[in-house]
């Protein structure tokens, strides 16, 4: 059975900024299931941080309902009275939600192990148990041999590992990562994302990943929500959203737009200038898994008399699923091209067609 871990219902958050009201989050509902890696993406200022800070009530919503693990943290109808969990209980419940940030926020005057132990200062564990827990976590994040170092003696990636160990000190079920890889070099970014993926599978940790880096969500997220101006404008399974983006902004974020422009730019105009507009089109093919291009091109020619010319192609990995993109021109009569496109779609290839007149005017 699917277990809902986080449920945000109709969340609004407004701020007063110099006398004006800024609506940072507008009527957003979001459900995160146990074991999800849920990416929340969007440009700076879209409202991502504000939205996720609502989960543990670091940010109070103006209206809406926040439920974590079946427990109502906050509830307020638009013009109603707010009901919220008591302060002491909230403090305890927050321990179930670890957080990591872009800036690691480590205590510079404390060693790595003391930084992790510090997160257990309110726990009822004995000092020896606290140390054992911190050592266990440092081992989990691959830093057992750096436990007596100070933060300044570590690389950014290593400091983020310490921050992750500290965030896991109270054995939380949920980890919120707010731009945790944004300040890291590409290599450390990949390693931190791999670590988050490992923690997700080994501990069944539910992760909410806020980022403006599409590469980060591509590497590990199962689901994504795209935010713009305080609203979630598109959401769903990562592979679905990446292969069938609906909103213009999503296309922009994942680069589909740029790819189309590149295809139009690279189009061999000499080769098509004498071809009648009705006899060719530009097509964007997307396929998951392994599709062999050569036989498809040969088949379209042999069975449908449609000539395929590849403009460019690319294979990407979305959460370990290979996803191929091909921009091609299809030459042939309208009826033959329609039959060929139908064959491609029936074979599981997603086809987006661009009329020749739209492409070159
Ligand atoms: N405490 C605050 N007081 C006033 N306005 C705020 C506050 N926090 C956020 N905002 C405003 O709310 C909007 C959303 O900000 P938020 O930080 O949630 O966006 P974001 O998508 O996380 O972007 P970034 O990655 O730049 O933080 C912005 O217009 C921001 O200026």
TrEMBL record:
A GO MF term: ATP binding
Xref: Gene3D superfamilies: 3.30.70.260, P-loop containing nucleotide triphosphate hydrolases
Coiled-coil portions: none
The entry's keywords: Amino-acid transport, ATP-binding, Cell membrane, Membrane, Nucleotide-binding, Translocase, Transport
Gene Ontology biological process terms from the UniProt entry: amino acid transport
Residue ranges of every copy of the ABC transporter domain listed in the record: 8-254
Protein name: ABC transporter, ATP-binding protein
């Amino acid at each position: 059975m699917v277990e809902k871990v986080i449920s945000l219902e109709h969340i609004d958050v407004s701020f007063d900024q110099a006398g004006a009201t800024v609506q940072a989050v507008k009527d957003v509902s979001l459900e995160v299931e146990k074991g999800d890696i849920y990416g929340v993406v969007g440009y700076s200022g879209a409202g991502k941080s504000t939205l996720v800070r609502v989960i543990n009530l670091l940010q109070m919503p103006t209206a809406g309902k926040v439920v974590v693990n079946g427990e109502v943290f906050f509830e307020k109808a638009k013009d109603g009275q707010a009901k919220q969990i008591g302060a002491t209980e909230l403090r305890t419940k927050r321990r179930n939600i670890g957080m990591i940030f872009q800036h690691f926020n480590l205590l510079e005057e404390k060693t790595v192990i003391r930084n992790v132990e510090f997160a257990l200062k309110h726990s009822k564990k004995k000092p020896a148990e606290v140390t054992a827990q911190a050592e266990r976590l440092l081992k989990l994040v691959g830093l057992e041999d750096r436990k007596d170092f100070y933060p300044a003696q570590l690389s950014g990636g290593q400091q983020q590992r310490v921050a992750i160990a500290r965030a896991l000190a109270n054995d939380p079920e949920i980890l919120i990562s707010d731009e945790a890889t944004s300040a890291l070099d590409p290599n450390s970014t990949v390693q931190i994302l791999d670590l988050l993926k490992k923690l997700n599978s080994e501990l069944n940790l539910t992760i909410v990943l806020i980022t403006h880096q599409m590469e980060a969500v591509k590497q590990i997220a199962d689901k994504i929500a795209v935010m713009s101006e305080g609203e979630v404008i598109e959401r769903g399974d990562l592979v679905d959203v990446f292969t069938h983006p609906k909103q213009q902004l999503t296309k922009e974020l994942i680069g589909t737009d740029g790819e189309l422009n590149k295809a139009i730019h690279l189009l061999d105009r000499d080769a098509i200038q004498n071809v009648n507009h009705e006899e060719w089109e530009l097509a964007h093919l997307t396929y998951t898994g392994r599709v062999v291009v050569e036989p498809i091109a040969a088949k379209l020619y042999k069975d449908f008399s449609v000539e395929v010319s590849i403009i460019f192609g690319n294979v990407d990995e979305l959460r370990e699923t290979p996803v191929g993109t091909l921009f091609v021109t299809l030459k042939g009569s309208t009826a033959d091209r329609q039959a060929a496109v139908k064959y491609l779609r029936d074979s599981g290839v997603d086809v987006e067609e661009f009329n020749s007149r739209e492409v070159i005017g």
